[in-house]
Design a protein that fits this description.
The complex is a heterodimer of chains A (147) and B (331).
Chain A (H helix, E strand, L loop, with lengths): L1 H7 L2 H16 L4 H18 L4 H31 L14 E3 L8 E6 L2 E6 L8 E8 L2 E6 L1
Parallel strand pairs in A: 3-5
Antiparallel strand pairs in A: 1-4, 2-3, 4-5
Helix pairs in contact in A: 2-3, 3-4
Chain B lengths: L2 H20 E4 L3 E7 L2 E6 L2 E4 L5 E8 L3 E11 L5 E12 L2 H6 L4 H18 L3 H6 L1 H16 L4 E12 L2 H80 L3 H20 L10 H21 L4 H10 L15
Helix pairs in contact in B: 3-5, 7-8
The chains are: A alpha+beta (147), B alpha+beta (331).
Chain lengths: 147, 331
């Protein structure tokens, strides 16, 4: 197998890289993409510089490992952007909105009707009927302040 | 194969395995907890995530979407000792994957048992009628209690709905009978009220009619009286005018009028188709004679000024004491 791999030479890396990228499309998991890109990169370099196959393998391993921090840096702003979506984050969507207290907040805790369900709220003691604003969200617990 | 060959191959395998283990794609709607040496460290949110292989391990994969669980059927005894069968559904959503993973052992089972016991306590404090008619109140109370109870588990119960409340069959039948009786009662009352109303209306109509009739009679009587007054007045005036005329002229003129009327009256008697024989009392015949006497009295009353005129009249007229009717003077 090694003989076949060596005999094909430089083309091995390009073929290997495209196969990996094709696999990535079929079974998305992102790590195959980085491996494929690393393989392509090694292939392109080996066209220009003559290297032993062992060196090429080590280069491939280094590129694949290096892809992760590079990807993280590139992906970070994208992650921040996606976190602003309220999908599955129902309480975050309430942040900054104003509601009228139906029951008073006593000893820092109370309940508030929003939509057709009841939310647990925390905040300064306030009588019922006061307008309050959601200032902080922690899971299903809302912190409110007088609006 | 040299040692370097083996090293290169192993290195590549190691990198591939590490990448496979370290890159985690969390699907939308789920949160994954990460345990480092078995201890919770962080929660992965949907999207691409990296963990440190060898140290970190994915713990629980928590569904962050709103989920519905069936609350199984159970028998509940209401405050008035009716046994009803109740089931329902609960909607909940995990807000804190870590708490939902590690604070409670069997999440769904915990919610089901909690809801079931609370259904029992809430409905057990109500009468059957209340239970059947205040479903929203039950839902609301359940929601508040259960939601507060699940709070330490990092989730929120959004809604609890009682699906079916089934009272025992004989009770349902009795309720049906009660409802029917209630309707029959209402129908009877309505009917009686209608009859009463119509009776009242009829009586009122009759009363109104009678009042109007009486008013009409009263008005007519008033007018009649007025008419009589007016005719009396006219009579008085006519009499006065006649007396004045007599005072100025001869009493024979008076006799003339009386005789005229008398003859006319007889003429009418004669014209009557059914009575040809006329019986007159003696007094009636002598009455005419007495008329001359009345003239005398009138003359005496009207004073001496008329005396001479009266004397002249007597001379030119038939004797006042004559029992025969006066002969009509020539016209």
């Amino acid at each position: 197998m090694t003989d076949m791999f060596v005999s094909l030479g430089t083309w091995n890396w390009l073929i290997f890289g495209f196969i990996l990228m094709a696999l990535e499309v079929i079974a998305p998991g992102v790590f195959l993409l980085w491996l494929g890109l690393a393989a392509l990169l090694v292939g392109l370099i080996s066209f220009a510089v003559v290297m032993s196959w062992q060196i090429q393998l080590v280069m491939f391993a280094v590129f694949a490992a290096a892809a992760v921090p590079v990807w993280r840096r590139l992906a970070r702003p994208k992650l921040d952007a996606s976190s602003s979506s309220f999908l599955n984050k129902r309480s975050e969507a309430l942040l900054g909105r104003e509601f009228t207290l139906e029951k008073p907040i006593v000893d820092g805790n109370g309940t508030m009707r929003i939509g057709d369900t009841v939310w647990r709220v925390a905040g300064p003691d306030t009588p019922a009927g006061t307008r309050v604003k959601v200032v902080q969200v922690d899971g299903a617990n809302l912190t409110v302040a007088a609006a | 194969m040299s040692g370097f060959d083996v090293f290169a191959i192993v290195l590549v395998l190691l990198v591939i395995v590490t990448l496979i283990a370290g890159v985690k794609t969390v699907p939308q709607g789920y949160d994954w907890t990460i345990e480092r040496f078995g201890k919770y460290t962080q929660t992965l949110s949907p999207g691409l995530n990296l963990i440190v292989p060898y140290f970190d391990r994915v713990g629980r994969k928590i569904n962050m979407m709103e989920q519905v669980i069936n609350i199984p059927e159970q028998e509940v005894i209401t405050k008035d000792n009716a046994t009803v069968t109740v089931d329902g559904v609960a909607f909940f959503q995990v807000f804190d994957a870590a708490k939902a993973s590690y604070e409670v052992s069997n999440l769904e089972q915990a919610i089901i048992v909690l809801t079931m016991t609370n259904i029992r306590s809430v409905m057990g404090s109500m009468d059957l009628d209340q239970v059947l008619s205040h479903r929203d109140v039950i839902n609301e109370r359940l929601l508040r209690v259960v939601d507060a109870a699940v709070s330490p588990w990092g989730l929120k119960v959004n809604r609890i709905e009682i699906k079916d409340i089934v009272p025992p069959a004989d009770l349902v039948e009795a309720m049906g009978r009660q409802m029917k009786a209630e309707r029959v009662k209402r129908a009877d009352i309505l009917q009686a009220e209608g009859a009463r109303q119509s009776e009242i209306l009829r009586a009122e109509g009759a009363k109104q009619g009678q009042i109007l009739q009486a008013e009409g009679r009263r008005e007519a009587a008033f007018r009649d009286a007025e008419a009589r007054e007016r005719s009396a007045e006219a009579e008085a005036k006519a009499t006065q005018m006649v007396s004045e005329a007599i005072a100025k002229g001869d009493v024979a003129a008076l006799n003339y009028f009386i005789a005229d009327k008398y003859i006319k009256a007889f003429g009418q008697f004669a014209d009557a188709p059914n009575q040809k024989i006329i019986m007159l009392p003696m007094e009636a015949v002598s009455l005419l004679g007495s008329l001359a006497g009345i003239g005398e009295i009138a003359k005496a009353t009207f004073g001496e000024s008329a005396a001479s005129a009266s004397a002249a009249a007597r001379r030119g007229s038939v004797p006042a004491t004559s029992p025969t009717p006066p002969v009509a003077p020539p016209r």
